[in-house]
Design a protein that fits this description.
Elements: H1 2-16, E1 21-27, E2 35-41, E3 45-53, E4 61-69, H2 72-84, E5 104-110, E6 115-120, H3 126-154, H4 159-171, H5 182-190, H6 196-209
Antiparallel strand pairs: 1-2, 1-5, 2-3, 3-4, 5-6
Helix pairs in contact: 2-3, 3-4, 3-5, 4-6, 5-6
Length: about 220
């Protein structure tokens, strides 16, 4: 009996420690990627998954997954906005069918006590608009990371143009959580077979990611 009680006692912390999660997903056929999802835990750990064409000039498709950690600032902002949106427990879609389709979006909140999901194409709620823009900014960053992994492995000559586009978007503030793709940027920078101008650009983007946080 004592052993059973001890087993129950030690199992309780792990149950209580399960983090809350927020998931954003987007399904948009014929776009690139065609589908992606971002899952962020209350401790900042995150998972990105997408499916679509390997690159713009290829018809081959792949499913790509990676783990990363959100900055404290962005993680806090996501969960604060979710609280303001009542954890997506009600209707968030505008209901206006005249608005162009920009992908089937879904926001889900889950913790140890409840789970709620809301689907939408477009929302007039400012907090949902902020969350959508934030997650799409993160997805743009992760997509650059996905393509850079592919180009670094199979098509190094394509790295120059890809990193130019990435740097331009980063300067314009269109990419969020640059530090999430630091591993592949570091690999490119450290690769002596890559031309110096590309390695230098990878380092500049790494440096930009050092000042992480959500500015939107």
């Amino acid at each position: 009996m004592i052993i059973a009680c001890l087993g129950l006692f030690w199992s309780l912390p792990s149950l209580a420690a399960d983090p809350a999660t927020i998931t954003f997903s987007l399904d948009f056929p014929k776009s690139s990627p065609e589908r992606y999802s971002i899952v962020v835990q209350s401790d900042g750990r995150a998972h990105y998954e997408c499916s679509g064409k390997i690159s713009d000039d290829s018809e081959d498709r792949e499913t790509y997954e990676t783990e990363f950690t959100f900055s404290d600032a962005t993680r806090s902002k996501i969960f604060a906005l979710a609280a303001q949106a009542h954890y997506f427990s009600g209707k968030i879609d505008s209901g206006n069918r005249k608005i162009a389709f920009t992908g089937a979006k879904k926001l889900t909140y889950k913790d140890g006590e409840h789970e709620s999901t809301a689907a939408y194409n477009y929302s007039t709620l400012p907090v949902v608009q902020q969350l959508t823009a934030l997650f799409q900014g993160v997805a743009s960053t992760m997509e650059f990371g996905r393509r850079l992994v592919h180009y670094h492995r199979y098509q190094k000559l394509a790295l120059d143009d890809e990193l130019k586009r990435m740097e331009d978007q980063a300067v314009r503030g269109e990419l969020i959580e640059l530090q999430a793709v630091k591993p592949v940027l570091q690999e490119i920078h450290d690769d002596s077979s890559v031309i110096n101008v590309v390695r230098a650009r990878a380092q500049r983007i790494i440096d930009m990611g050092n000042g992480v946080g959500a500015s939107r």
